[in-house]
Amino acid sequence: MAVTGAVLVLFLITHMIGNLKIFFGAESFNDYAHWLRTLGEPAVPYRTVLTLLEAGLVVAIVLHMWSAVSLARRASAARPVKYQAKKKSHAQGYAARTMRYGGVIIAFYVVWHLLDLTFFVVNPLGGDATPYQRMIADFDPSRWYITVWYVVAVLLVGAHLHHGIWSACQTLGLRTPRTERLLRGLSGTIAAVVTLGFVAVPVSITFGWVS
């Protein structure tokens, strides 16, 4: 779970950086989208590398969810009788409580996101528009509810990241009394930067700062 989580964190960071190119204008954003689809040309056909990366990402997501279910079942089997006294801990904090349900909501969001900007099924302009035009149309002020839905999903991703990165550091044996404060700060910083980076784009479009 920690390893697949690390793969997903790296994907989110690179995806966020790509999204931020929208602030450099339509040409920069469209060039980036075109570059993604032509990676490896002419050695390999159009979109081959991107398709392989997407397939690997799907595998990582499926393995991550499978690991979560397996660990939950193992924990339940290891302790079939509940504790008589409940003790609050970091693992029972807000982020931990949202991991399970937030993960389900994030999964639904990923499906919608793919239908919107990869397969163009739910995008207002469809597949004939440029990537920049589709993004602008998606978060048009008249579609404010899409922006709200996006922001809520990203906030859940942030909570998921904060708790997940910290847990992964413990799982991988990186936590020590000396590194604990650093790792807590690192997990919070990464979660905050990724959240702000993803939220900045739809909010800027909805408020007319990018058009």
TrEMBL record:
Gene3D superfamilies per record: Fumarate reductase/succinate dehydrogenase, transmembrane subunit
Q: Which UniProt keywords apply?
A: Membrane, Transmembrane, Transmembrane helix
* InterPro entries, sorted: Cytochrome_b-558, SQR/QFR_C/D
Tell me the first and last residues of the signal peptide.
none
Coiled coil (UniProt feature): none
The UniProt transmembrane annotation reads 49-72, 101-122, 142-161, 182-210
Protein's recorded name: Succinate dehydrogenase cytochrome b subunit
Which source organism? Actinomadura livida
